[in-house]
Amino acid sequence: MVVIMVVILLVDKIKTDVEMYDLGENLTDYKMKNVSLRKIISFYKTEIKRLKSEIEKLNVQKYEVFKATAYDLSINSCGKKKNEAGYGISANGTDLRGLDRQEAMAIAVDKDVIPLSSKVEVIFDNGYSKYNGVYEAVDTGRLIKGNIIDVFMGDFDNEETHESVWEFGRQTVKIRRLE
Question: Does the pTM exceed 0.85?
Answer without folding.
Answer: no
